[in-house]
Amino acid sequence: EVDSSAKHGSRPMAVLAEAGNVVPGLERGLLGKKKNDRFELQVPAKDAFGDPKPELIETIAREALPVEGDLKVGMLLSGRDRQGRPLHAVVTAIQDNQVTLDRNHPLAGQSLSFEITVVGVREATVEEKEHRHAHGPGGHQH
């Protein structure tokens, strides 16, 4: 289990349809659902985070990483690329002074299973459509 709003006692996740805020297979599975619908949904990797991309795996010199302390296989590193966008990578191998990093999403190549209860459906506000995400409980607050 990767996530559960029920298990953690958190609010349900708010989704703005057709805004690309969730994986495509989940979004398609939610379309047309009504309040109180309960269902299971299987989303193949190609409709979730896609297949791993070999070009997102690279080996670089240890001294090129601005990380203090020991590196360990499995560590998640976060930073920014040259354009200032967030960048995440998992250390997959360390050999001598070389570190292999995988920048694929951790769930790339995996099918996803969802157990869903729809707790409400409403029309999106103009502001939500402009911002391309849901506001209010379970969504992004302004």
Which structural traits does this protein have?
142 residues, mainly beta, four-stranded antiparallel β-sheet, two-stranded antiparallel ribbon, 2 helices, 6 strands
Please provide a written account of the structure.
- The protein has 142 residues and is mostly beta strands.
- It is elongated and about 55 Å long.
- Strand 4 and strand 5 form a beta hairpin.
- The chain has two helices and six strands, in the order H-E-E-E-E-E-E-H.
- A four-stranded antiparallel β-sheet has the order 2-5-4-3, with no helix packed on it. The chain has a two-stranded antiparallel sheet with strand order 1-6.
Share of helix among residues? under 10%
Question: What topology, given as strand order, has the largest sheet?
Answer: 2-5-4-3
Largest sheet: 4 strands, antiparallel
Shape type: elongated
- Give me the strand/helix succession: HEEEEEEH
Number of distinct helices: 2
End-to-end distance, in Å? 30 Å
Q: How much is the average pLDDT?
A: 88
Oligomer: single chain
Count all strands and give the number.
6
Spans of 5+ residues with little confidence (pLDDT < 50)?
A: none
> How large is the share of residues in beta strands?
25-35%
Which structural class should the secondary elements be placed in?
Answer: mainly beta
Rg calculated over all Cα atoms: 19 Å
